[in-house]
Amino acid sequence: MSSDQDPQGRPGAQGTPSGQDGPGHPCIIILAAPSGSGKTTIASRLLQALPTISFSVSATTRPARSHEIDGVHYHFMSLEEFEVHRGIGDLLESEEVYPGCWYGTLNSEVEKSTAHAPVLLDIDVVGALAVKAKYGPRCLAIFVSPPSLETLRIRLEARGTESNASLLERMAKAKHELSYSGAFDRVIVNDDLEAAVESAIQIVSEFMSGS
């Protein structure tokens, strides 16, 4: 089963929107989670269920993989290009997620969003909290948590894509990220994917309506 909690652990507690006119402009929804928690799948299902939500394409300095398209999966940039965007204030948030590998959100990806057509950000935990701090009740920050670190380790191993070194790095990062979960508006514990998806849809629907 999946459990939905607010940061104080109250199951199903209300999120941040206030008033009857929705959360305002811009309107931002964030999903953040340790790698392997199911965040990407939940984000995809959320976009399918609520088609007025647009997806924010992140900027990154990492190389594109063979199947990835610039401007669709990511805005791929050199480190020099990324630094220019940071310097002129084009980035809402940015973070060196792994050594030499930067990710960030362009302001242009969020500035036109509204309560009826919000934007979904799939970003790291530190970036998520920076955006939440800036936009307050206009931003719903959801943390997707694995049931336990051991479950997360098993999921990552099952991918078959991690070396021993990278697995240790991801697990250390996950432990650090989990320590921030209490700073988010809502926490979804993904021990059952279908239940977690339904929780996400309900939480976001309530946020968009301002209820």
Q: What is the strand tally? A: 10
Report the CATH topology name of the largest domain.
Answer: Rossmann fold
- Runs in which pLDDT lies below 50 for 5 or more consecutive residues are 7-21
Percent helix, as a range, is: 25-40%
Helix run count? 6
Give the termini distance in whole angstroms.
25 Å
The 3D shape can be described as globular
The average pLDDT value, as a whole number, equals: 87
Going by CATH, the homologous superfamily of the largest domain would be P-loop containing nucleotide triphosphate hydrolases
Across the major sheet, the strand order is: 1-10-9-2-8-3
Q: Any idea what the CATH architecture of the largest domain is?
A: 3-Layer(aba) Sandwich
User: What does the main sheet amount to?
Assistant: 6 strands, mixed
What does this structure look like?
With 211 residues, the protein is α/β, with parallel strands linked by helices. Mean pLDDT is 87; it is low at 7-21. Strands 1-10-9-2-8-3 form a six-stranded mixed sheet, sandwiched between helices. Strands 5-4-7-6 form a four-stranded mixed sheet. Helices cover 35% and strands 20% of the residues. It has helices at 39-49, 79-87, 125-135, 149-159, 164-178, 193-209, and strands at 3-5, 28-32, 54-55, 59-60, 75-76, 91-98, 101-106, 119-122, 139-145, 186-189. Helix 1 (39-49) packs across helix 6 and helix 4 (149-159) packs antiparallel against helix 5. The chain has two domains: 3-56 and 114-209, 3-Layer(aba) Sandwich (Rossmann fold); 57-109, Guanylate Kinase phosphate binding domain (2-Layer Sandwich).
